[in-house]
Amino acid sequence: MSSPEDIIEAATEVSRILKQIGVSHAIIGGAAGNLLGSERSTLDVDVLVSFPSIQVREAILKHGTKFTGSKTDLKFAYTNDGGTFVPIEFLKDGNEAALSMPDLASTPILTFEEIPLVHPSIIVCLKVGRWAWMSESARPRSRVKAKQDLHDILFLLKWLVENEEKISFEGMETNHREKYTAGFQKLSSQYKLAAELLNNLL
Fold first, then answer.
1. Strands 85-92 and 45-49
2. Confidence band for 70, pLDDT divided at 50, 70 and 90
3. Which of 25, 119, 140, 193 is found 20 to 30 A from 60 (Cα to Cα)?
4. Domain boundary assignment for the chain
5. Distance CA 96, CA 174 (A)
6. Is the dihedral of CA 72, 73, 74, 80 positive or negative?
């Protein structure tokens, strides 16, 4: 796991380079939470991009002296001055990707200190959708991931309330809307704090 400080440094640098070379992107997942103030350590920086390609990888390696990359995929590591390695992974946006992800062209984006983030209202939906089934798993790794997701969910719900934001399913496909609604209902039934926060958000 990387510390929030290491994650923020790596996310800031990769975003700077992607903007420099003109690649549309947004930080997603736990790294976005760290940028917004979450203190949970996370494994890597996930970056949502429209067109992951070998050209993007090569451009980052060319423009960023602290990055190392694999020749076989789009996974990278950022090494800070203290010698800490922070893995960075590019995720293809859209439903046609291996993992269904938001479409950068239409999903809400929050610019935080000049870094584009997938809007917290979208990230919390994605995390609730995964938490809802992982929390039922008997696999130890899945249960650990569900616990991490729960921490992130509660942080994001608090952030949304404090910033007077709302969770909206407008524009989402029906199956996604139903999945997230069921996930929030399950969350509310199990955690009083979540229920109180969601009363102000839905």
1. parallel
2. low
3. 119
4. 4-118, 120-198
5. 17
6. negative
The residues that bridge with 118 in the sheet, in sequence order, are 109
Residue with tokens 């690649």: 23
Determine how many CB atoms are found less than 10 A away from the CB of residue 73.
12
Bridge partners of residue 46, in order along the sequence: 28, 89
Q: What is the distance between the alpha carbons of residues 123 and 121, in angstroms, rounded to a whole number?
A: 6
- What is 4-118's CATH topology? Beta Polymerase; domain 2 (3.30.460)
Q: Taking the model in full, what pTM does it have?
A: 0.90
Residues 6+ apart with CB under 8 A from 199: none
What is the per-residue pLDDT across 13-53, written as a single tens digit (0 to 9) for each? 999 999 998 999 999 999 999 999 999 999 999 999 887 66
Q: What Cα–Cα distance (Å) separates residue 160 from each residue in 107, 167, 168, 185, 187?
A: 17, 8, 12, 18, 16
The tens digit of pLDDT for each residue in 157-170 reads 999 999 999 998 77
Cα–Cα distance, 88 to 75 (Å, whole number): 6
